[in-house]
Amino acid sequence: MRVLFLASYFPRPTIPLAGTWALEQAKALSALVDLEVACCTPWVPVAFGVIAKARPWIQVPPVHCWDRVTVRYYKTLYYPIPPFSTWSFPDPSRQMSLAWLSVRGRLLTAIAQFRPDVLFCHHTAVNGYLASRLSSLTGLPYVITDHDFGEIAQCEHLPRRRAFFESILRRAHRHLCVSRRMETDVRRIFPFAATETLHNGINLPPQERLVVPRPPELRDRLVVFSSGMFTERKGLPLLIEAFARVSHRYPTAVLRIAGDGRLRPTVEAAISQHRLQDRVTLLGLVPHEDVFREMAWCDLFALVSWNEPFATVHVEAMGTGKPVVACTDSGIADVVQDGVQGLLVPPRSVEGAAAALDRLLGSQADRQRMGDHARALVHGHLTWTVNTRRLLEIFEDSLAARSTR
Fold first, then answer.
1. Quick one: 238 and 338 in the same domain?
2. Are residues 362 and 312 in the same domain?
3. Cβ proximity of 329 and 351 under 8 Å
4. Which helix (H) or strand (E) holds 243?
5. C-alpha to C-alpha distance for 263 and 237, rounded to whole angstroms
6. Helix (H) or strand (E) holding 198
7. 266 and 278 both lie in a single domain
8. Do residues 143 and 219 share a domain?
9. Of 55, 58, 87, 168, whose CB count within 10 A is highest?
10. Which pLDDT does position 211 carry in this prediction?
11. How many whole angstroms separate alpha carbon 270 and alpha carbon 239?
């Protein structure tokens, strides 16, 4: 079977840390099918190269091979950043029509050359739209996975956005959600949609990556690790405040945070406010393989982001045998049982996060028990291998349905 994977949130050679989870899914898929990835990336004029932030986008090559996954990057008139994203959110049709016109010929050429049997795409409002246009011209079936609560839920209040989604979902063979909360939204707003929940997973890291000894500065320390982009939803200042409330009880405890973003000054201010400069370390943007190493070194993983559809970073930490702290409104709460694989806390609750940190920092037995359960859950149910087996069933079903028609 040949599958063309449409994914716009995907690593670029010049921007390797964006969408690493999508690349990991592509790697798992490529073990089961003949796969090629089409990634529409914003077209930026070469003249903008004087702007540092623009250069990585200008320098994206037309094709790149990530291990065994071939990715073709199509420069497109699509810009998922303000003010364009704000302007287009209530009615994506205008921006996406322009994107389609700018990439239509190249995508049709890719289909003629690769000859896929099915289209698989991330995000209805972007790649789902492109797949629907391609399907109308080629007859290829398409399957969509959505990854964000707001992209679906806001359709209930925005009529034009809802109409845009409806036209795409009506023609999709299957629509997939990464959490049950998202599936509930889809079933309420689009009751005709053939939707189901299929959780994200991880590719298990090589064992040798997890047995690297701790560096000297972390020996005899209780290590709390967190990782995420520095945006409001990730709740990093709240996590720092929660750590401050309990850190005096655990003088050997430290908090290490991987990531960066526009709210870095806010995160740094929280560290200064609670006088934690010697207890909290900002690691910056860390390569994916080094994130796994940090997880192997830590005693527990905490990311109290709210409205988190299904953060694979929680799953990655669980896969290394570490208990996690997460929020009850997040997709990870579909699979993590409070007190079994980790602790679930109310969103935006400093008190809840502090209590969870206190319990796990104070009990090595709880950390060991929950970490063991977390590892077993991931190895048995939350790998990309499990995810892609179900995807393959759906793809085969789409081909059977097409043959019947």
1. yes
2. yes
3. no
4. helix 236-247
5. 10
6. none
7. yes
8. no
9. 168
10. 82
11. 10
What span, in angstroms and rounded, lies between the C-alpha atoms of 113 and 106?
Answer: 10
pLDDT, tens digit, for every residue of 160-198? 999 999 999 999 999 999 999 999 999 999 999 999 999
Helices then strands, counting H and E runs in the chain, come out as: 15, 14
**Same-domain check for residues 20 and 147:** yes
pTM of the model: 0.92
Number of domains the chain is built from: 2
Same structural domain for residues 111 and 220? Answer: no
| Cα–Cα nearest to 240, from 194, 303, 180 | 303
pLDDT tens track for 105-141: 999 999 999 999 999 999 999 999 999 999 999 999 9
Q: What is the dihedral of CA 256, 258, 262, 267, to 10 degrees?
A: -10
Are 191 and 98 contained in the same domain? yes
The answer to whether 171 and 140 are in contact (CB under 8 A) is no
Domain residues for the domain of 316 are 207-381
Strands 300-302 and 324-327: parallel
User: Where residue 88 sits, what CATH number does that domain have?
Assistant: 3.40.50.2000
